[in-house]
Write a structure and sequence with these properties.
The chain is of the alpha+beta class. It is built from eleven helices and 18 strands. Helices cover 30% and strands 21% of the residues. Strand 12 and strand 13 form a beta hairpin. The longest helix has 19 residues. The relative contact order is 0.10.
Length: 383
């Protein structure tokens, strides 16, 4: 199945082309209902085939999200939960699961508040079996996961093993992720959990943490009529309160902080007074450079000192941060290949332009010396 991307004045689109298959009642459902979680699309007849144009404006693909953010347990939980909710919503309209694309290039998401919202493609042309698409998805996880992180790497290989079974479903994958996520949450000890555990073991919590004997006299567990504050548990809790933060592993360290990918909202941009310098030039030889010309709230030259090189308005996750509300959080990416630089738009809201021509999503454009590159309203020249 070949996927292409086009950008027009109206928006950004994903294109599929092939022989249209009869879908019967599903077409009637799509015509009469605004089915939630399905991407809007229209068709064009071309040389005996049918082109399907899916509106993906302002959305990010599964592949782009994990490449930009890195694979974590929390991210997989968020993305797969969004996909599960989408599947459930679509099933109410009797749309068959086999007609929904689940390959990583055709899974799109947008951030609504703190939650991901999935947009799926109804495909009425020839495409791979659902199982093969899910195998492609788990295979992507294996190739992109940080193998130095054993826990998340183990989960990715477990998901891949499930997809290699003769019979499996999407729900086998989501259930595996949910069980691992639930287990991670249960492993997090709260302050009261730690106190209760030590008291039940008959240990002196103060001595456990400080190495000193407690001066608090043991008191029998209070009855209903007694004030619970006189119990040894509550007395000791006050005494060691200051030590507990050093002993407890906070949830934020076990489950990474959520990141947002919402093109229509912008964080406060950190203005850099000097050019971006991240790595030495040795890794790529002669370094390319984008010379700032105009736009935004001002800017500085950008040295392309690594590959890939990410550009956007969000301070976290980008190699160059641009000072403009028109620039998307994750706007574009530049890579070095075969001695040249290639720029790729990341389905930004206001587009990436080379010499006045807007770039299609996931269609790299080679940069030449003196080319004019615009990230929305910020203009640079290749030198």
């Amino acid at each position: 199945m070949k996927i292409e991307y086009r950008r027009t004045a109206k928006g950004s689109y994903m294109l599929l082309e092939g022989s249209e298959m009869p879908v019967g009642y599903e077409r009637e459902m799509l015509t009469k209902n605004d089915v939630p979680h399905l991407l809007d699309f229209h068709t064009i007849k071309l040389n005996g085939n049918t082109q399907f144009w899916y509106d993906i404006s302002g959305m990010r693909s599964f592949k782009d999200i994990i490449k930009a953010q890195g694979i974590s347990l929390e991210l997989l939980q968020d993305l797969f939960t969004a996909m599960e909710e989408a599947q459930s919503a679509i099933a109410k309209y009797l749309i068959r699961q086999e007609n929904i694309l689940m390959c990583p290039d055709a899974l799109f998401f947008e951030k609504r508040g703190t939650l991901y919202y999935a947009g799926l493609c109804f495909c009425a042309t020839d495409h791979d079996d659902l199982e093969d698409q899910l195998r492609e998805l788990t295979g992507l996880l294996i190739s992109e996961v940080d193998h130095s992180k054993s826990d998340i790497t183990g989960l990715c290989y477990e998901l891949n093993a499930i997809s290699e079974r003769e019979e499996f479903s999407f729900y086998d994958l989501i259930n595996c992720i949910k069980e691992r996520y639930k287990g991670a949450e249960e492993d997090i000890l709260t302050e009261d959990d730690t106190m209760n555990r030590l008291c039940r073991m008959g240990a002196d919590p103060w001595e456990e943490f400080s190495g000193e004997k407690s001066t608090v006299e043991p008191i029998a567990e209070p009855t209903v009529e007694e004030d619970p504050k006189v119990s040894v548990r509550f007395s000791l809790k006050e005494k060691i309160k200051g030590l507990l933060p050093k002993m407890i592993i906070p949830k934020s360290r076990l489950l990474p902080e959520k990141k947002e990918f919402q093109d229509i909202e912008f964080d406060e941009v950190v203005q850099r007074e000097e050019g971006t310098v991240l790595l030495s030039h040795d890794s790529l030889g002669a370094s390319g450079k984008l010379m700032y010309e105009s736009g935004g709230r001002g800017g500085s030259d950008i040295e392309l000192v690594k590959s890939p090189f990410s550009i956007g308005s969000r301070p976290n996750g980008n190699d160059a941060v641009l000072s403009s509300d028109a620039v998307s959080r994750y706007h574009a990416r530049i890579t070095r290949h075969d001695g040249g630089y290639f720029i790729e738009d990341l389905n930004s809201k206001n587009g990436t332009y080379v010499n006045g021509e807007i770039l299609a999503y996931q269609k790299p454009q080679k940069l030449n010396r003196l080319d004019v590159v615009a990230f929305a309203d910020m203009v640079y020249r290749v030198v």
